[in-house]
Amino acid sequence: MYDSIAALVRQEGWRAEGDAARVHYEGGDERFAIEYYAGSDTVLYWTVPTDPDVRDGTDTNADAGTAEPVPRASVPDPLRERIRRDLVAADVDPAAERREI
Predict the structure, then answer these.
(1) Whether the Cβ atoms of residue 4 and residue 93 lie closer than 8 Å to each other
(2) Are 41 and 93 in contact (CB under 8 A)?
(3) Domain count along the chain
(4) Within 13 Å of residue 45, how many CA atoms lie on the same side as its CB?
(5) For the residues 5-9, what does the mean pLDDT come to?
(6) Dihedral through CA 71, CA 47, CA 98, CA 73, nearest 10?
């Protein structure tokens, strides 16, 4: 496991998934999954369905449960700032949050 991943999972809500770390954020009517990839030193944002039936797996409509990548410009600034703080706390360059793929 990358040191950066191990350090991120010590931050609130983060968990390791191979060479990546993921955290979920829910605010208002929006839900995001944020992934940091150690190999490429990048952060990706995904929207996550907010329908409770989709989240708990009781909705079998495959289209309703699909997460979609979102551009950083559509992610609330407070969330992006929180992710940069978590990266800094994990000794990861916060510029990774701004890096385009």
Answers:
(1) no
(2) yes
(3) 1
(4) 23
(5) 96
(6) 40
